[in-house]
Amino acid sequence: MSWEPQLPPAELAESRLITAILDGTYPVNSNLPAERELAGLLGVTRPTLREVLQRLACDGWVAIQHGRSTRVRDYCCEGNIAVLGAMARHQAQMPPDFVPNLLQVRTLLAPAYTRQAVERAAPAVSEMTEALAALPDEVTAYAAADWNLHRQLTILSGNPVFTLILNGFGELYHDMGLRYFVSPEARQHSRGFYIGLLEAARRADPEAAEAHTRQIMLQSQEIWQKII
Asked: Which tens digits make up the pLDDT trace of 69-86?
């Protein structure tokens, strides 16, 4: 018999508290319950709760006010990149505009890291995209291949910040891909992306790769709107 791994108490409490913040149980600018009460609600000891609150404070979820109640911060304005990853992991509580906003950011970032990847490593980009010609016309195959392509492009760009940002919502990216690539139009559209990128990489033309990627990303937003 296989069992689901149990999260350590601190990680479980952190996840529960982030869920409660995202679903509005503890809205932005509200105060959390007193330490003893909150520890009981989360099922952890008070020292564990203090550890969790310190981590959430560092990421921008809460503000610890000595002698006063801990306040929920405006995490979208005051949080750091860890907040992005946490929101991506809590899909059930995700704000309705989160995915469209994420796609908009990808439209801004993808042309940049694709250009840099072709500038620095055109042969490697050619090899990757050429292999995609044999990609099976299957949803799971496209979801996995598209994630891998974009991740490798961020690595080849030479800027690890691109990779860290992408890794921050890897699970969400995969889940979105499984929804997106159900559409035959989406799969055909991505095939066009891979073909165009291959041509640009073979010519070692970063400007063409950037322009092609930007156009494809904008069009993919339109396809996503049809799907949802």
From this structure: 899 999 989 988 888 888
Range of the domain at 76: 9-93
210 confidence band (pLDDT: 50, 70, 90): very high
Q: How many domains does the chain have?
A: 2
Same domain, yes or no, for 78 and 146? no
Q: What pLDDT is recorded for position 226?
A: 86
CA distance 209 to 115: 6
Give CA–CA dist 6/116, Å, rounded.
41
* 206 and 125 both lie in a single domain: yes
Residue 67 pLDDT class (50, 70, 90 cuts): confident
Cα 86 to Cα 12: distance, rounded to the nearest angstrom: 13
d(CA 191, CA 189): 5
Residues 6 or more apart whose CB falls under 8 angstroms from that of 9 comprise 43, 44, 45, 48
Domain boundary among 32, 64, 93: 93
Q: Are both 108 and 20 inside the same structural domain? A: no
Query: Do 50 and 110 belong together in one domain?
Result: no
Determine the Cα–Cα distance for residues 14 and 11; give it in Å rounded to an integer: 5
Q: Indicate the pTM of the whole model.
A: 0.81
Range list of β-strands (E), the chain: 62-63, 71-72
